[in-house]
Hints:
The chain is mostly beta strands.
Amino acid sequence: MNNSLTSIKLVVAIFVGVMLNPIVSYGVESGASLTLVGGDPNKGVLDPEDHTKIVDPGEIISTKGPLRLDYVPSFDFGKTRVSRKTMAAKADAQLLHQGSGPRANFIQVSDYRNTQAGWSLLVRQEHQFRDDTKANASLKGATLSFDKAWSYSSLGQAYAPSVSKETIVMNNIGDTYPLAEAEPGKGMGTWSISFGASETNPLKQANTLSVKRGKDNKIETNPSFENQKIYENDAIQLTIPASTAIQAGNYSTVLTWIIAELP
């Protein structure tokens, strides 16, 4: 059992949730918002640490409309040896094609409504990590956690959405967890919500990325990203209790990302 490998991967689905309550319009401030943000540039995915750069993170899962998710991440926790002890696997950091180097995993939100009404970003795990090719192969008690959240935009931090300062631990499957919220008058334009940061980030967040090493301490690379070095992100982890009975295999789950208007 100790020599087995279990490959743990995370599959992400996307859903847009919109509050049904009427949106409050702040007419006095609407003109300022339009002047500040301007029209919707719809540039695509931006470097989460430098919004002057358009980047290619690979597969893009997004929604449409003036309030939208431009990008949500998929997570790969690689391979970890089955153990009788509690296991903690770190997510691979985001790589960019021909890009700026590794980045922490991030979500990009754009709000180009003329209401300054605010929004909420939430996430929900639909089922436990499981291997659908095997009977009863589920990582019972395994939990995803998100830490060291921060937001970035070329608009500056005066208009930043609030993010959780505590570690978000998804203890309950099916529950919805808030990740960020822009109160009325904030969150306009395009924002990157990151969990962790690279050592070159502009807001001097603590570096959470480190080179990933595999067998014989060899640095791992990703052939899908021009054989760039793979980095681990300490801010996003999957924890599997020692009591969990594990079969070697490929495990996955589904996350639903929700962008919601504030009432």
